Amino acid sequence: MSIPFVDLKAQYESIKGDIDHAIQSVISDTSFIGGDIIKTFEQRFASFVGINHCIAVANGTDAIEIALKALGIGEGDEVLVPALTWISTAGAVNNVGAEPVFVDVLKDERSIDPSLLKEKLSERTKAIIPVHLYGLPAQMDSIMAFARENNLKVIEDCAQAHGATFRNQVVGTFGDIATFSFYPGKNLGAYGDAGGIVANDGSLARTCKMLSNHGQLSKHDHQIIGRNSRMDTMQAAILSAKIPHLEKWTEGRIKVAAWYSSKLDDSLIPKTPEGSKHVFHLYVIESQERDALMQKLKEGNIGCAIHYPTPLPHLPSYSYKKHFIGDFPVAEKLCAEILSLPIFPELSEEEVDRICEVLGSDSYK
Ligand SMILES: *Cc1c(COP(=O)(O)O)cnc(C)c1O
What we know:
The protein is 38% helix and 13% strand. The protein is of the alpha/beta class. The chain folds into two domains: 8-244, Type I PLP-dependent aspartate aminotransferase-like (Major domain) (Aspartate Aminotransferase, domain 2), CATH 3.40.640; 246-363, Alpha-Beta Complex (Aspartate Aminotransferase, domain 1). It has a seven-stranded mixed beta sheet with strand order 1-9-8-5-4-2-3, with helices on both faces. Strands 7-6-10 form a three-stranded antiparallel beta sheet, with no helix packed on it. A two-stranded antiparallel sheet has the order 11-12. It is globular, with a radius of gyration of 20 Å. Pyridoxal-5'-phosphate binds at residues 59-61, 85-86, 88-89, 131, 157, 159-160, 181, 183, 193, 195.
């Protein structure tokens, strides 16, 4: 039995009628860019998050760049970002002309360590980008308190955490603005690239909308310098059809994670701190035998992956910052020991049993 890391086909099969209808109606209307389908998606996603505004954009990386620009962050500014995340979180900061400043992460939460923010602060620091990594919320209470004390903007990177909550509040509603990715493998995935920005502040939302569409809100009225980062209508139609199922899929992920956690040895399993709802974009185990476990899974035809193999500050693209091994001890240890197991809502308990068996009797309870 081979088990893929993710199975997007299973989800499509389960809602084929809705998806095919959504795609067909975009083609029949030849409404490929903009229009009501985009508005409907924006309203549905804003209401899913429980926030005033959503702006549909081309992808989750652009979403971060546009959010930074809308907050006025650019040349000469510094932005605090976690050392362990997907490259976009930091790359977007460089791409608006600002400088990412890396902060180590918490061992269990695997998100930016609030106790280290102070030592990274300078008079240039303008913002923090907490990432709710793997679907587990960052420590938003301490992060927001620090941001308020130091007059910093907060951009939540929610690319992996659609619907996750911290102390019963949905992620994306804590900071000034938040960004989402709808990359196909994300918890809410399009059939191509897509992203979104959410905010409560109407004027900030309007600025994002303009930045993503050539600086205009209505045709030929270019108020500011913008760009083209629109979500295409086909993706919006597909995402709108999927939103009503998202909660059920999240429950499915949580159920799969609970199977793993009940079967695997306590030393391996990820922890969910009290007060947090983890939406398990990824189920990430930790072991000093990581490479051997990965080999066993490969031989057993079971998909797995490492998110991520290198702390961002140690990547060639950030060698200019001259960081050394030892500068980010927690992220460095995690990168050497983490392993993402297959997780998607349709994964069965038999498959989870099989994966645990392949990991070997030392790995399960
Ligand atoms: C996926 C992801 C992004 C970027 O999303 P794209 O849609 O692929 O551009 C940003 N941040 C994190 C943490 C992600 O996982």
